[in-house]
Amino acid sequence: MPAPYELIFRGFAFVLGAAIGSFLNVCIYRLPRDLSVNEPRRSFCPSCKKPIPWRQNLPLISWLVLRGKCANCGSRIAFRYFAVELLTALLFLAVWLAFPWPIALVYWVFVSLLVAATFIDFEHYIIPDEITIGGTVAGVLASVALPALMGEDSRWLAAAQSLGAAALGYGLLWIVLEAGKKAFGKKRIKFDAPTPFSWVRDGEDAEFVVGEERGLWSDHFARDSDLMLLHCAEAQVDDRRFENTTLQLHYNSLTIAQECFPLEEVDRISGVVRELQIPREAMGRGDLKFLAAIGAFLGWRAVLCSIFAGSLAGSLVGLASMLFGRRAWSAKIPFGPYLALGGLIWMFFGTRLIAWYVGLLAP
């Protein structure tokens, strides 16, 4: 039976985690939309934008009492808000139970970054620099302040290990990214029948629709050199019409035969496509920086564990989505959440994993 004071500390860890989870919900909503996490200071309803009073913003409790609805307009408040608060609370408690308190304080920061990155990546397929670069800096500074994070007594050696692990994480995924681009950087889709498509300007971006697939134009381009090819039975660029031609598209330009159209001067492209070739990436560059942050907090072995566990988990999820549902050609799989899972596995079970593996090699 834990001592009474230990129960108090455990309760405090859970409640603090729920409160931090409430703040993480603010970050998850605002950071991808380039909104300040400080202004406005109070949370607001995503639908009616009315500030939420503190009594209706109690972590975990308010969502349950209000049954997942805004008290002002009655709009649904996504279950994600409750899930983030509960998950963060449970992780804070687990960290407190598993590690000495100085390390637990650092790992509370680390798991907060993981939770925010996971939910942002699932929804927006990006991980903001505030989390990745900021997390890398925080990991290095934490290693200097607490060398035991890297298993060292010297602050300088701990800093060197943290920086080295961050560089290793970024470098390994950069190699995977570039190798994947060379090997699988183009995807060709042949349609069973001629399929209508449209490109319609929407501010600085555009909506790109092919058949039933719909998305933003910017989603298909990660590099200036990326090229999309549309083999068309017919096409129309604003008021000009073309037949049996190939559209060569970069993010900012369109070439038909020898004629070039800057896309900033085009409002609409439409037609019927027979075959489509799209550029693709093995992963986003945010994943590289995210793995660097994981390495900065946990060391080089966590980098290897995160890559292995993340790749395995992502592959299983991708395979399951193909077996149980028809995944569209334009669908994307975020890799950040699986890297975060690998980081958590290493943080809680890394030592036991090594002991198990060594036991297999030398029983």
Please name the defining characteristics of this protein.
363 residues, alpha+beta, eight-stranded antiparallel beta sheet, 8 strands
Describe what this molecule looks like in 3D:
- The chain has 363 residues and is α+β, with helices and mostly antiparallel strands.
- The protein has 3 domains: 94 residues; 161 residues, no CATH class; 94 residues, no CATH class.
- Helix content is 52%, strand content 19%.
- It contains 9 helices and 8 strands.
- It has an 8-stranded antiparallel β-sheet.
- It is globular, with a radius of gyration of 24 Å.
- It starts with a helix and ends with a helix.
- The mean pLDDT is 90.
Shape assignment: globular
How confident overall, as mean pLDDT?
A: 90
User: Which strands sit side by side, in order, in the main sheet?
Assistant: 3-2-1-8-4-5-6-7
Structural class: alpha+beta
Oligomeric state, counting identical vs distinct chains: single chain
The termini sit apart by 36 Å
Q: Output the radius of gyration.
A: 24 Å
Please describe the biggest sheet, giving its number of strands, its sense, and whether it closes into a barrel.
Answer: 8 strands, antiparallel
Number of strands: 8
Quick description:
The protein is built from 9 helices and 8 strands. It has 363 residues and is of the alpha+beta class. The protein has 3 domains: 1-94; 99-183 and 288-363, no CATH class; 186-279, no CATH class.
Can you lay out the helices and strands and say which pair or pack?
Elements: H1 4-30, H2 61-65, H3 79-98, H4 101-124, H5 129-145, H6 155-184, E1 186-202, E2 205-210, E3 213-216, E4 228-237, E5 240-250, E6 253-256, E7 259-262, E8 268-279, H7 285-298, H8 300-324, H9 336-361
Antiparallel strand pairs: 1-2, 1-8, 2-3, 4-5, 4-8, 5-6, 6-7
